[in-house]
Amino acid sequence: EPEVTQTPSHQVTQMGQEVILRCVPISNHLYFYWYRQILGQKVEFLVSFYNNEISEKSEIFDDQFSVERPDGSNFTLKIRSTKLEDSAMYFCASSEAPRETNYEQYFGPGTRLTVT
Amino acid sequence: AQKITQTQPGMFVQEKEAVTLDCTYDTSDPSYGLFWYKQPSSGEMIFLIYQGSYDQQNATEGRYSLNFQKARKSANLVISASQLGDSAMYFCAMRPNNNDMRFGAGTRLTVKP
């Protein structure tokens, strides 16, 4: 069964450093997402991406964040200058069809980001 | 604005019994999807069940069923015949037609032997 993969599974970085979290969505999917989950809290939407551009973003997704699909398979989340409060689990997800409510979003296993 | 509310931070159920996890939502969009995800202690998000706002029947997937009451804006998850492996966090989520999904705060389910 196809699945979303994410690397690394755990990233430790120092405050102020840049990090890039990588995701490989399911190959025939067209919509891509990033979510984050601060430890013990709910999953929060960050951004959705379709047709090589951001389609929606939340208030959390400020200028420190960017997303990119550098090639046909990877989807990346970059945090330019990490802060302690960026420590969280970051989930990538993908779905098959745009603007349809009933398509399941397949989640990756997550990357745990720890900012020290 | 869209809002998802899960009022039960924690629930306990005896093995083999059924349990209902509550979820209410608020949206002005006429078309939306409702989802439940399971998050075990390992952290991954596992899709369980989907209900569309225009679906006439309640969704079922094996031991999972969704008690959808549109007028009350509730989408409770019912797990029948609970198993020890059902112990996890459960998140209700809604995706209106603009395609970004919002999650509730989650309910931690503990199945007791």
- Inertia-based shape of chain B: globular
Question: What does the overall shape of chain A look like?
Answer: globular
Beta strand % of chain A: over 45%
Encode the helix/strand succession of chain B as letters: EEEEEEEEEEEE
Largest sheet of chain B, in brief, is: 6 strands, mixed
What structural class should be given to the helix and strand makeup of chain A?
Answer: mainly beta
Largest sheet of chain A: 7 strands, mixed
Helix content of chain A: under 10%
How many distinct beta strands of chain B? 12
Biggest interface in this structure?
A-B, 26 and 27 residues
What's the rounded overall pLDDT mean of chain A?
91
Uncertain spans of chain B: none
The secondary structure category of chain B is mainly beta
Oligomer: heterodimer
Residue share in helix of chain B? under 10%
Write the layout of secondary structure elements.
The complex is a heterodimer of chains A (about 120) and B (about 110).
Chain A: E1 5-7, E2 10-13, E3 19-24, E4 31-37, E5 43-50, E6 53-57, E7 65-68, E8 75-79, E9 88-95, E10 106-107, E11 111-115
Chain B: E1 3-5, E2 10-14, E3 19-21, E4 24-26, E5 32-39, E6 46-52, E7 60-61, E8 64-69, E9 74-79, E10 88-96, E11 102-103, E12 107-112
Parallel strand pairs in B: 2-12
Antiparallel strand pairs in B: 1-4, 3-9, 5-6, 5-10, 7-8, 8-9, 10-11, 10-12
Give a quick summary of the entry:
The complex is a heterodimer of chains A (116) and B (113). Chain A has strands at residues 5-7, 10-13, 19-24, 31-37, 43-50, 53-57, 65-68, 75-79, 88-95, 106-107, 111-115.
